[in-house]
Amino acid sequence: MHNVPIKSAFRNPHSEMIPVQQVLPASLAFILKKAPLSPEKVQFAWRTAVGAAVDRATEVALGADGVLHVIARNRTWKQEIVRSNATTLARLQSLLGDDVVRRIETRISPHV
C-alpha cells in the first residue's frame, strides 16, 4: 500500500479546484430556482440574502407584482434594510430568479 497525500487523492489532475465558497452559493441558487415559489421559499431566500439578525428583525411577504414587502421591527432596522436594498435585491434575484422580486418596499411595524 502506498502513501498518497489526501489532497492529491481527491484532486482531478485535469481541472482546477473550485473553492467551496463559490460552489455552495451557485448550487443553492440552482436548487432554489427549480423549486416552486412559496412563502417558505421566499422566507428562506430572504434569510440567506440578509442573514439571521436582519431576518429575526423583519417579516416579509412577496406580492403578485414582484414587490417584496418588508416589515421592520423599528426605525433602525428599516434604515439598515433600505441602505442595503441594492445588494439584497441582487442576492434575492440570484437565488429566486431575476423576475421574481423586482423591488423591495420597507415599512416599520405598527406594533412597536
Attribute tags:
112 residues, alpha+beta, GMP Synthetase, Chain A, domain 3, 3-stranded mixed β-sheet, 6 helices, globular
Structure, explained:
- The protein is of the alpha+beta class.
- It has a domain of 76 residues: 2-Layer Sandwich (GMP Synthetase, Chain A, domain 3), CATH 3.30.300.180.
- It has a 3-stranded mixed sheet.
- About 6% of the residues have low confidence.
What is the chains' assembly state? Answer: single chain
Q: Estimate the helix proportion, in percent.
A: 40-55%
CATH structural architecture of the domain at 37-112: 2-Layer Sandwich
Mean pLDDT across the residues is 83
The name CATH uses for the topology of the domain at 37-112 is: GMP Synthetase, Chain A, domain 3
The span between the termini is 68 Å
Molecular shape: globular
What is the gyration radius calculated from CA atoms? 19 Å
Total helices: the number is 6
Strand percentage lies at 15-25%
CATH class of the domain at 37-112: Alpha Beta
